[in-house]
UniProtKB/TrEMBL annotation:
Ranges where the Activator of Hsp90 ATPase homologue 1/2-like C-terminal domain occurs: 23-170
UniProt-listed InterPro entries: ASHA1/2-like_C, START-like_dom_sf
Protein name, entry field: SRPBCC domain-containing protein
Species of origin: Paenibacillus hemerocallicola
Family to which the UniProt record says this protein belongs: Belongs to the AHA1 family.
């Protein structure tokens, strides 16, 4: 069960922040962020299924996945992990990719950044976990940063749906 109290806060710079309180202990929340058999059930926007091609959770490791919509259209994505501090923090760079795992341009018309640095923190109080995700473009042009900033509302909806799926999944495991 989730307390539906997501909050989002855009700082004056290009950072995107979203927080969700989950009705599950931190060790379990961390576990479902780091194991393929769990990630495939909840990662990604609502309405898309995920197939895990590779998951190697360690600094320098890769999470490579396919997002598939109900019509069978596919988009590849990947994380490159920078830091794993169980069960407190995961730091990774997220990108769109091709089937081989090479970084590719996003499938949008706007100049979206090719790499987004994400820091996910997990803190526990009274058996509930507060998950906070902070995202910021890396190696981005000024135009890409501005497009990123203009996408905060869309990102709030996308991550909100993903975290809804996470909360539903946590209630079952």
């Amino acid at each position: 069960m989730v307390e539906n109290n997501s909050t989002t806060n855009a700082t004056e710079n290009e950072e995107f922040v979203i927080t969700r309180v989950l009705d599950a202990p931190r060790e379990l929340v961390f576990k479902v962020w780091t194991e393929a058999e769990h990630m495939q059930h909840w990662w990604g926007p609502k309405g898309l299924s995920i197939i895990v091609a590779k998951l190697d959770v360690r600094p320098g490791g890769i999470f490579h996945y396919i997002m598939r919509d109900p019509d069978g259209n596919e988009m590849w994505g990947r994380f490159t992990y920078r830091e794993i501090a169980a069960p407190e923090r995961i730091v990774f760079v997220n990108s769109f990719s091709d089937a081989e795992g090479n970084i590719t341009r996003p499938p949008f018309d706007e100049p979206w950044p090719m790499e987004i640095l994400n820091t996910v923190t997990f803190s526990e109080l009274d058996g509930k976990t507060t998950l906070t995700l902070r995202s910021i473009p890396v190696n981005a042009t000024k135009e890409e940063v501005l497009v990123f900033q203009s996408g905060f509302e869309s990102m709030e909806q996308g991550y909100g749906g993903t975290f809804d799926k996470l909360a539903e999944y946590l209630a079952k495991v």
